Amino acid sequence: MTVEPERARELALALPNTSEAPHFDRLAFRTPRKMFATLDASARDMNLMFDPDLRDFYCEQASYAFAPVPGGWGRKGATRCQLEAVDEPTLVSALQAAHRLAQPGLRRR
Predict the structure, then answer these.
(1) Which domain holds residue 34?
(2) Model-level pTM greater than 0.90?
């Protein structure tokens, strides 16, 4: 039950209208509107830009793989996914959820 960082990158880039760009020491994945995920290949984790409800859902359903990002970003919904603990279908679901929130015309609460 593990997703390699390169596979996580491929899954994120497979979503419609997604581009990749450097973001500090991470890779960022974004729609034309906003960033929905970041990847740290060396730490083997991915941060997903959820809203608080999605953060709570994934952290409750798969606590072995998901946890709030510490601090203010986590309170807003940002969620860390440990790639060594998550299976691919769960990561795909999480990426799709974060991607939907980043689509034009949708607003965070």
Answers:
(1) 5-101
(2) yes
Tally of structural domains, the chain = 1
DSSP 109: -
State the Cα–Cα distance between residues 88 and 24, nearest whole angstrom. 26
What burial class does residue 57 get, using C-beta atoms within 10 Å of its C-beta: 0-12 exposed, 13-18 middle, 19+ buried? middle
Q: Which residues, at least 6 apart from 35, have a Cβ–Cβ distance to it below 8 Å?
A: 23, 28, 29, 49, 102
**In this structure, what CATH number is given to the domain that contains residue 79?**
3.90.1150.30
pLDDT tens digits along 66-86:
999 999 999 999 999 999 999
CB 30 within 8 A of CB 18: yes
Strand ranges (E), 1-109: 19-23, 26-30, 35-40, 45-49, 66-68, 78-82
Q: Given the structure tokens 């990561």, which residue do they identify?
A: 91
